[in-house]
Amino acid sequence: MIRLRRASLPPDTSARLATYTEEIEQTAETDRKATAAALWAHTTVRRRVRDGLLSTLADMAPGHQRCMYCGDSQGTDIDHFEPKSLAPVRTFEWLNHLLACAYCNSNQKRNAFPRSEEDGGPLLLDPTLQEPLDHLRLILPVGTYRGLTPQGDACIAVFGLNARGVLVDGRRTAYETAKESVELWRIATDRGRDDKAAKIVRVAWNRPLADVLAAMFHQADHRAADLLFAGEEETLGLLRDRALRAAFLSRA
Ligand SMILES: [Zn+2]
After folding, report:
1. What is the 8-class DSSP label of residue 208?
2. Whole-model pTM?
3. Is the separation of the CB atoms in 186 and 244 below 8 Å?
């Protein structure tokens, strides 16, 4: 999961969402869940809002339309952050929409929406509102996450971030590839090949599991970086290079 910026919707999509929200709000409270579900499933309704939602979410998503939760698979589903069964009036609310892969949406998250016992706040992270790096620490050489907060723990559990072997193996590969990218950037830059260096940055962020790249730069700046990168001193040196950091971290 990486921090994302929420974009603006096409005006006609926004207007239609507002109309459907109003329709749900005007329904008796006991019928809202059924009304919201029926509207969302309705072919015409979906056709009217789906393209605008999907194309805007795809532009916001990491890499080539990757899932906003696992960062690995193609994001194909409009996910309701707060499930429509629990918050029917938010079914057509733009701020409640994220892009998820079918696996994260249908197999992992489903209707899960854990809340804090202390203050009742959501325990899942919304990457358009929160910085996932504050809640999740990636153990880079191993490819698994450690929760730094109850929200981090909840995301690991609900999305199976450590239980899905394909994600853990993928992150290990992504770490090796990302290390190569920073080395190649240094070489290209030293040779005055700025065009090539810029391409290396673009390609690096467009790969699946870009959370690994984000975690690398974040951890190189950590006070315990020497420990976190034990045995990887060369990589740490590169990641601390100010010009290199600026080139990779100014992507947005
Ligand atoms: Zn996913």
Report:
1. S
2. 0.94
3. yes
